[in-house]
Amino acid sequence: MPVAAIGKNKYYYEIKGSGEQVLFFSHAFLLNLNMYQALVASLESSYTCIVYDHPGHGNSELHEVDLSFEKLVDELAQFIQIVSPNAPVVFVGSSLGGMQGLALAIKYPTLISQLVLLGTPLHRENFFQRLPFLALKSLIPIFGLSTFVPLFMKQFFGKSFVDQEHHQELLFFWKKELQNNSVVTIQKFLTIILAREQYAQQFASIQCPILILVGDEDASISIKSIRQLASSFQQKQLQIMHSVGHLPVLEAPKIVSNYIQDFIQQTPFILHSKTMT
What we know:
Layout: E1 3-6, E2 9-16, E3 22-26, H1 37-43, E4 48-52, H2 69-83, E5 89-94, H3 96-107, E6 112-118, H4 127-143, H5 149-156, H6 159-162, H7 168-179, H8 183-194, E7 210-215, H9 223-230, E8 236-241, H10 248-251, H11 253-266
Parallel strand pairs: 3-4, 3-5, 5-6, 6-7, 7-8
Antiparallel strand pairs: 1-2, 2-4
Helix pairs in contact: 1-11, 2-3, 4-8, 5-7
């Protein structure tokens, strides 16, 4: 079982495929690398695909007491240097994973050749938007995680997807995965996410091409806000996916795969050695 020890944390990861270009996948909060299973299966014949679990998620271990969003990004930069030492990666991030990708593209621009954002908020939540998450942080230890799993599922999946009978097996699987999360991990990551820096003012400095995929049934994201903030990027493609919720990679993996492959083919890939700045 491949594990990278970075700082006090241990990152479990898997590598599939053997293409020259490396795709690096970062998953959403509360989920794990399994969310990319179908997407990676469609890409591994052409690319090297690296998936991993965030600390405290899946098979990765969280031991850092004073973990912050910035420290998490720094560790991720070190991790990318370990698994792809000779070339930048195409960074594919879902929600929290996309937030990390944006921070990496700003702080460590030589590590990323292209950036794919899936259901990723582009701004830090304001005070009133943070209140429900702060309440969750306090209430989950009292009432138990299972009480709030239906709420998470409603935030994650679009109504059109949930209403279809043939999706029930996948939904049941992710309900169980959500219930397997540690309350300690949830509390730490809620703190990390809500306290992260506001990067919007630095979007214009991002030089790599960016693909943004957002579902029109995403309960967590304002498409109007996404359009406004995305205008700051130098090179970007924005696609609004019909009848899709917060997790396009789970609801429509084939469509996401097509978007990613077209995006990679349309944007330049330069193979060069990386140095962390």
